Amino acid sequence: MSAASETLSVTLPADLVRLVEAKVASGEYATQSDVVQDGLQGLMDRGLASEHWLRTEVAAAFDAHRREPTDVRPGDAVRAGLEKRFAARRAASRDL
Fold first, then answer.
1. pLDDT of 47-60, one tens digit each?
2. pTM of model > 0.70
3. What are phi and psi of 78, to 5 degrees?
4. Distances (CA, A) of 2 to 23, 58, 77, 78, 84
5. How many CB atoms are located within 10 Å of the residue 20 CB?
6. Nearest-angstrom CA–CA distance, 18 and 35
7. Distance between terminal CA atoms of the chain?
8. For labelling, which of 3, 36, 62, 79 has a CA lying 20 to 30 Å from the CA of 11?
9. At 43, phi and psi to the nearest 5?
10. How far apart are CA 82 and CA 79, in angstroms?
């Protein structure tokens, strides 16, 4: 924990409580707080990664389209590419 920490009481569904307890019992984490902190850090990281993706890839694609509006990919192709990408990310996160 950082030097400037505060206590926060939260209510979790029973399955998440069991998950937190199992992580501590396995020795993967020292405390329940460590589990929750790591989960929240992952949430922050995911948000930052999404923001980076929007600012770089999506913005670049939008700018390219504005420069050359006739160079357009069909919506089905875009959707299929996104679904493939998200499926790969989900699979990678399950492997962690």
1. 999 999 999 999 99
2. no
3. -65, -50
4. 21, 35, 46, 43, 38
5. 19
6. 12
7. 23
8. 3
9. -65, -45
10. 5
Task: Assess contact for 63 and 56: CB atoms under 8 A.
Answer: no
pLDDT in tens, 13-65: 999 999 999 999 999 999 999 999 999 999 999 999 999 999 999 999 889 88
Q: How confident is the model at residue 8 (pLDDT cuts 50, 70, 90)?
A: very high
Longest dimension (CA), the chain: 58
For residues 57 and 92, give the distance between their C-alpha atoms in angstroms, rounded to a whole number. 21
Q: CB atoms < 10 A from the CB of 17, how many?
A: 12
With a CB cutoff of 8 Å and minimum separation 6, the contacts of 16 are none
Residue pair 80/73 in contact (Cβ under 8 Å)? The answer is: no
Domain ranges of the chain: 14-94
Please answer whether residues 86 and 94 qualify as being in contact, where contact means their C-beta atoms are separated by less than 8 angstroms: no
